[in-house]
Write a structure and sequence with these properties.
about 350 residues; alpha/beta; TIM Barrel; 9 strands
Length: about 350
């Protein structure tokens, strides 16, 4: 593989706004005019895969598609590989949308991370009809995972096999349709074995959120990972969604990544964004919020870079432009939150410069 291009130090210092990484007081640094920022393509300078979530609609947007292809080397389907898209009410499968995403990735030399096989929030009609019928439920569960993971065998590099299994409060596992019928650990153990049977090449991940802001949830997540490994489940990687906000205490991300990496598995920062809506900072201007956001992005990428190379699976950004973020959707007020690396016009923000600086050791 060709070594990533590394811009000259003077280029990086020019791209990174003065004071953006300083720890000074409120109001110390202001966001410069965005037009003055010049940031190289992220995938060209990062010594790890740089991912982004996509949907089929992105491929029709002539302003967005060039940004995606210039900056990102890995795709995650934002929602079109989830069960609610693939599994129809009658139990049949609809693969047109996920096929298009996987095909597009292959045609453009972008590697594909598949998301997700089993998610606690799913309650599809095809499974609800057999709720309580253990044999029928087990058969349907096996058939779904075999069909979906098997279809993309050799075309995706990895799967989020189980998504968000740990409850937000108290560090306990969630109850769901899957745990009710197959057991709280049983549905997960089965999912990993079935995914491995269907695809013996893909790396199999456990994925969850708020591991940075809630240490008790992080402890439960790591305990679950240990239980799965002890059971013999072929768990091979850990995903931390890394949905952050500018109110997060400095050092929180670094501590979380160090903890999550302690099991020695590959780490995927799988849904990175940094919300700029935080009540304590409502009185601050956009420049001050951009400074806080950039510090968090730098801390995140710097902590990821501190991992052994074999554990640096990828960092995936959960969107490209601020205007594309899930945080713009109802009931959120549009245009208020600015959580991504590029602004609504597709121009790189100070956070993008911070990403590059940390990825290149600056």
């Amino acid at each position: 593989m060709t070594a990533p291009l590394r811009p000259h130090r003077r280029f990086l210092l020019a791209a990174l706004p003065a004071g953006i990484l300083a720890s000074g007081c409120k109001g110390q640094a202001q966001e410069p005019p965005l037009a003055s920022l010049s940031v190289p393509p992220l995938k060209m300078v990062a010594p790890f895969p740089v991912g982004v979530c996509v949907s089929t609609g992105n491929f029709e947007d002539p302003t967005l598609l060039p940004l995606i292809l210039q900056n990102f080397s890995q795709f995650t389907a934002e929602w079109q590989m989830k069960m609610e898209t693939i599994l129809k009410d009658d139990g049949s499968f609809a693969f047109a949308e996920p096929d298009r995403i996987v095909d597009f990735a292959g045609e453009n030399g972008v590697r594909m991370h598949a998301h997700t096989l089993i998610w606690y929030a799913q309650k599809p009609a095809a499974f609800e009809r057999i709720d309580g019928n253990k044999t029928a439920f087990q058969n349907a569960y096996r058939n779904y995972i075999a069909a979906v993971a098997g279809r993309y065998r050799g075309r995706v590099v990895s799967w989020d096999v189980v998504n968000e299994p740990v409850a937000d409060e108290g560090g306990v596992l969630r109850e769901c349709l899957w745990s009710k019928n197959l057991g709280q650990l049983g549905y997960m153990i089965d999912a990993y074995h079935l995914a491995r049977e269907a695809d013996d090449q893909a790396l199999l991940f456990l994925n969850d959120y708020w591991l940075e802001k809630r240490p008790e949830k992080r402890r439960a997540f790591l305990h679950l990972a240990e239980q799965l490994l002890k059971s013999g489940a072929p768990l091979q990687g850990l995903g931390s969604q890394t949905h952050l906000d500018i109110g997060l205490e400095p050092g929180s991300v670094k501590a979380a990544i160090k903890d999550i990496a302690s099991l020695g598995l590959p780490i995927h920062l799988s849904e990175l964004d940094v919300s700029t809506r935080f009540t304590r900072f409502d009185g601050e201007g956009d420049g001050q919020k951009a400074t806080r956001q950039s510090r968090l992005v730098h801390e995140t990428v710097e902590a990821f870079m501190a991992l052994p190379e074999r554990q640096r699976f990828a960092i995936t950004n959960w969107g490209v432009r601020d205007s594309d973020s899930w945080m713009q959707r109802p009931p959120n007020p549009p245009g208020v939150n600015k959580p991504l690396l590029f602004d609504a016009e597709g121009r790189p923000k100070p956070a993008a410069a911070a990403f590059v600086a940390a990825a290149t050791g600056r």
